[in-house]
Amino acid sequence: MSRAILLFIGSLMELGAGSLLLVLPGPTSTLLVEVHVVDAGLTFAQMLGAGLVSMGIMLLFVSKTKDRATLGGVTVAYILYNLAGIGVMSFGAINRGHEGDALWFAVALHTVLVVLLLRAHLRAKT
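Above: the chain sequence. Below: its structure as tokens.
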């Protein structure tokens, strides 16, 4: 699978998760980390949602580019973002007990995406 296709898939993931956090910050947070978010936490969850929607839009546009350097740079940055997300979510689940019903599914999804992105990036002639 090409980097462009994987970035497009990533854009759909980020747009979906971001939209849920933006519109339904409480239930989405509970689903991911099994913590009932209230007050300022709802605002932070919505800010996270806005950031994910923005990233999704950026990934959508980049997935359509023919510029190899841009595609390569964004792919590496997105790999690092996904690795950080895997680490943060896993740490929260293991060390803090923040383990919602969808958390390990999200970790698995990000892990598969990292593997596929790395493979596509290493095969591409940047």
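DSSP finds five helices and no strands in the chain.
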